[in-house]
Design a protein that fits this description.
The structure holds 3 protein chains of 3 kinds. Helix content of chain A is 30%, strand content 24%. By secondary structure, chain A is of the alpha/beta class. The model of chain A has no long low-confidence stretch (mean pLDDT 95). Chain A has 14 helices and 19 strands. In chain A, β10, α4 and β11 (181-183) form a beta-alpha-beta unit. Chain B contains 4 helices and 8 strands. Chain B has a 5-stranded parallel beta sheet with strand order 3-2-4-5-6. A 3-stranded antiparallel beta sheet of chain B has the order 1-8-7. In chain C, α2 (55-67) links the parallel β1 and β2 (71-76). In chain C, α1 crosses α5 (135-149). Classes of the chains: A alpha/beta, B alpha/beta, C alpha/beta. Chains in contact: A-C, B-C.
């Protein structure tokens, strides 16, 4: 990937301008001057402008990921805000929300300010998600008001569930004052025990300890009910099971304050793929059966799932090199996201490209309250340019994260990010 | 059974009359702190005699003012204390008359004797909203208690009891517009407007224009 | 007075509340005299039955009783030494046997005073039953407001703080609504009881908006025990969002009356400077507390026993 400063005038020529806000797909040119959108339409090339040929390419909003782990502060050996930014740009992401399970956790206004200040130096926009409880220990609320004032965009104890129901209730109650979403990593730890994968015929064949889908869906149900009781806002992260989808679907009928996300790996893989004991496929919540995968795809199509989020979770080679039971949960996912979901949803399941782009742009931005009008004249250019049909194979050199724990290596991808323009810089893949 | 002028308790600010009555009258008019609605008088009225009209009341009060000054050799140390409710306008009238005669404005105060009544075990009486108001020190003063009617004397006893809570006057003297006799405790008035001996079943009612829109002293009979 | 006991202000008639307030003003005058005593309750015996510590309320009641020349007996019990149920009845019946006229009771369990009325013939006054009612506090609050403004109808009162653990809030809401005032509650969402809007009041989490709207603020104490739990993150956060600080008030150019039931946590829910300012009528409330308790005792105990039930 080539990362360089944008020239003073850049003309994106002859692309398909796909605007997920207005839901239009028009052929046209975009002139970017001093990093801001100057003009859109038929633009004559001028001598001063650098021309980027966008023939057969889609020009759209930069992607927004509402769920990623950048490991800073504490585990800069796995990822830093800078390296995470590079991974994001490679995947077409211009805006990422980072989870607070760092060391120290992002549980006070001081740490929020640290992340916000650091992210000014980074080539993407990084928004901190604050912890719900102090130290993520599940017993004391964090100073949500003060953290919001410093720049938090949502609250989550992700990595860990909020196990105590009265605590979750109090958190939802408290958050109603601010109208921001709470994100609960739904996992009944008692039911999960030491499970490392989905409980099914595959786990029995592999002899690995496992946990059933109820581990997730029970807690999703609890969270949805508490949300209705308190009038708060809930965003359900990394939905993995058909049962959870049933609860979410039903809840959404009467409660518009519920949103949900799905990861690329839950859409791409099934528990069958774990037969090779690849620790890169060890994730929480686990990858489940083919019928869960089908249910997730259906839920994308019918709107039960609002957006795609990567749950980008870097781990060192040493950590992932271990045996299956000892390896930490999680995989990186920013760079492989588009190629994977475009293949599964658009190519194999006939989702429209526009709908997919919405799930990567306007929907996540809407949940977090970010500006969606990115083709407005005068806004800072925050764009992704995609070849929607390119067939390619994901390899190590496509990884720009500091870690490389990705099970997508060697898999066929469909559609490729060609350029990402953000904060006055352009990344060329 | 008596059907003379009916008594309706109400608050001094005149905001309507309440349906509950805190009173149960057995003829103790000397405790009567309420205003009469003169219109309430039933048509078949018992004998009502007008004992004093406005001019005779005026003359009596002027005489009382002179007597107070004469007895006390002037206005020094005098403080008027009116016993609510009709003692208040009477005390004020005395104050302005004394000022006209002597040139000095005597200090004035008012007592609501509700809390010091001696029948508090028998009946609940709610105090006037505009209650006790003694702003000047009373130590070593000559207090002239002022009331409209002197009857059993219990009101005056309660008033003296209450004055105790404010200090120790040099002397306490009593000025009343009407003395109708029938003392139940040893109390005597020093300055009397008019002596009106009464029988059992008769009642004295003083009307003053500040409260009742006219000056009059009425003697009424009640039927048995 | 319509009711024999004073258990709470729910459904308490407006005329009776007004009587108490008016009578309280008369008693306030008594409290200004050199000798602050009237003989009105001479010979009556009142027991202060406090199952929960409360020095302020008890002293206020005791002073009120003594100034009315009543005889006072204090009974402090800890609920741990008394088993619930059986022994409560025993305590009550023992009191009854001693022929007392009235009981002023504070108990941690809601409904305890009502329970007592079933076992004793004396007049019961609720000095706070758990997080249920504390009618005498609400009455003294209303007396203070009436004293300051001259009326209650249409007055805009905001109650700010830990509503769900306050024994003062409900009684104030009932009383103020009965007298025609408007009430808004403000506080952290975790400390506002659910469904409270059904009582006809507004809940608003934005304290600055509430200050703009209100004529008077009743600032409630934030108990430090609640901090750092599932309900409130920290004092700093509470102060930022809801504290009645000098800085916050300086942004609102308006006449505002500040009340507080006490004891004050200076620097937490209210700044020292605000509590000591001329806008605050906190010390008036204390004096009005004695006066209004005198009025309540006088109106409920005065006269013959049969006569009280008018």
């Amino acid at each position: 990937m080539n990362f360089s400063k944008l020239k003073k005038e850049v003309l994106l020529k002859g692309g398909q301008i796909l605007d997920p806000l207005t839901k239009t797909n028009v052929k046209g040119d975009i002139l970017i001057k001093d990093g801001k959108i100057k003009a859109i339409g038929e633009i004559k090339s001028s001598k001063s402008a650098q021309i980027i040929d966008c023939k057969d390419l889609i020009i759209t909003h930069g992607f927004c990921d509402v769920h990623a782990h950048f490991r800073e502060p504490g585990r800069e050996d796995k990822e830093t805000l800078e390296t995470g930014s590079m991974a994001a740009l490679a995947g077409g992401f211009t805006r990422v929300c980072v989870m607070p399970n760092t060391n120290p956790p992002i549980d006070s206004p001081e740490v929020i300010r640290y992340i916000v200040d650091r992210s000014e130096e980074c080539p993407i926009y990084i928004h901190p998600i604050g912890a719900i409880t102090k130290g993520q220990e599940g017993s004391e609320l964090t100073e949500m008001g003060a953290m919001l004032a410093e720049g938090a965009v949502a609250f989550s104890d992700d990595g860990l569930p909020v196990t105590d129901s009265s605590m979750m209730r109090n958190a939802l109650d408290y958050a109603t004052m601010f109208d921001i979403p709470l994100i609960n990593h739904a996992e009944d730890l008692c039911l999960k025990k030491d499970g490392v994968m989905h409980e099914g015929i595959i786990s029995t064949k592999l002899g690995l300890p496992s946990s059933p889908d109820l581990t997730e869906s029970n807690m999703v149900h609890r969270d949805l009910s508490l949300t209705l009781l308190t009038g708060g806002r809930l965003h359900v992260p990394h939905v993995s099971s058909a049962k959870s989808l049933e609860h979410i679907r039903l809840s959404k009928k009467s409660n518009e304050k519920v949103t949900a996300e799905v990861t690329p790996h839950h859409l791409f893989f099934t528990d069958n793929d774990l037969q090779g004991f690849d620790t890169n496929l060890k994730v929480a919540p686990p990858i489940r059966t083919i019928s869960d995968k089908k249910a997730l795809i259906k839920a994308v199509k019918d709107g039960t799932l609002d957006c795609i989020a990567t749950d980008h979770a870097p781990h060192t080679i040493e950590e992932k090199e271990g045996t299956f039971d000892l390896a930490p949960f999680g995989m990186i996912g920013l760079e492989s996201c588009f190629g994977a979901v475009n293949r599964v949803l658009v190519k194999e399941n006939k989702l429209s490209l526009l709908s997919l782009i919405e799930m990567l742009t306007t929907r996540p931005r809407g949940i977090m309250g970010f500006n969606n009008n990115l083709f407005n004249i005068g806004t800072n250019a925050e764009l992704t340019i995609i070849d929607p049909k390119e067939e390619w194979i994901f390899s190590k050199k496509d990884i720009h994260s500091k870690s490389s724990n990705s099970p997508f290596i060697g898999h066929n991808m469909y559609g490729r990010i060609k350029f990402t323009i953000n904060k006055g810089h352009i990344s060329t893949m | 059974m008596y059907f003379s002028l009916s008594f309706k308790p109400f608050l001094r600010d005149g905001k309507g009359s309440k349906s509950t009555s805190y009173f149960d009258f057995h003829g103790t008019e000397s405790y009567c702190q309420e205003v009469f609605y003169y219109k309430e008088v039933p048509m078949a009225s018992p004998k009502i005699k007008n004992i004093m009209n406005a001019e005779s009341i005026d003359r009596s009060i002027i005489r009382l003012a002179h007597e107070i000054l004469e007895r006390n050799h002037g206005v020094e140390k005098i403080m008027l204390v009116g016993i609510l409710s009709r003692g208040e306008p009477l005390a004020k009238r005395l104050q302005s008359l004394i000022q006209k005669i002597s040139g000095s404005k005597t200090p004035i105060g008012f007592l609501d004797i509700t809390f010091h009544r001696d029948d508090f075990r028998d009946r609940l009486v709610v105090p006037q909203v505009k209650g006790t108001d003694i702003n000047d020190p009373i130590d070593d003063k000559i207090i002239i208690l002022v009331d409209d009617v002197l009857f059993t004397g219990r009101t005056i006893r309660a008033a003296m009891d209450e004055l105790n809570a404010f200090g120790r006057p040099q002397k306490i003297q009593l000025a009343v517009l009407v003395d109708r006799g029938h003392r139940e405790i040893p109390i005597k008035a020093d300055f009397i407007g008019k002596n009106i001996p009464t029988h059992e079943g008769e009642h004295i009612k003083v009307l003053l224009k500040e409260i009742d829109d006219k000056d009059s002293v009425l003697l009424t009979q009640s039927r048995n | 007075m319509k009711h024999r006991h004073l258990l709470g202000l729910k459904d308490y008639p407006a005329e009776d509340i007004k009587s108490i307030i008016d009578t309280a003003f008369s008693f306030k005058e008594v409290l200004e005299r050199p000798i602050k005593k009237v003989p009105s309750l001479n010979g009556k015996t009142i027991v202060n039955l406090f199952f929960e510590n409360s020095t302020r309320t008890r002293i206020s009641f005791e002073l009120a009783q003594k100034r009315l020349s009543a005889d006072t007996v204090n009974f402090s019990a800890s609920t741990s030494s008394l088993k619930k149920g059986e022994t409560f009845k025993d305590t009550a019946q023992n009191l009854e046997a001693m022929k007392i006229d009235a009981v002023v009771m504070r108990h941690p369990t809601p409904g305890a005073p009502l329970h007592l009325t079933k076992h004793i013939d004396a007049i019961i006054i609720n000095a706070g039953d758990g997080i249920h009612e504390h009618p005498t506090q609400a009455i003294l609050d209303m007396t203070s407001l009436y004293e300051k403004f001259g009326y209650l109808k249409g007055l805009k009162i905001a109650i700010i703080g830990d509503i769900s653990h306050s024994r003062v809030a409900l009684s104030n809401i009932y009383g103020l609504k009965t007298m025609g005032a408007e009430v808004t509650l403000c506080g952290p969402a975790t400390l506002i009881p659910p469904f409270i809007e059904d009582l006809g009041i507004v809940v608003n989490y934005n304290v600055d908006e509430v200050i703009e709207w209100a004529d008077a603020l009743n600032v409630l104490r934030i108990q430090r025990e609640r901090m750092g739990g599932g309900l409130l993150p920290s004092i700093r956060e509470y102060r930022n969002l809801f504290g009645i600080t000098t800085e916050r008030l300086s942004h609102h150019k308006k006449e505002l009356v500040i009340m507080h039931p006490g004891p004050i946590n200076r620097g937490v829910e209210i700044d020292s400077a605000v509590a000591d300012s001329s806008q605050a009528i906190i010390l008036n409330q204390v004096l009005n507390g004695v006066a209004s308790r005198m009025a309540i005792l006088y109106l409920l105990l005065g006269g013959k026993p049969e006569e009280r039930k008018v």
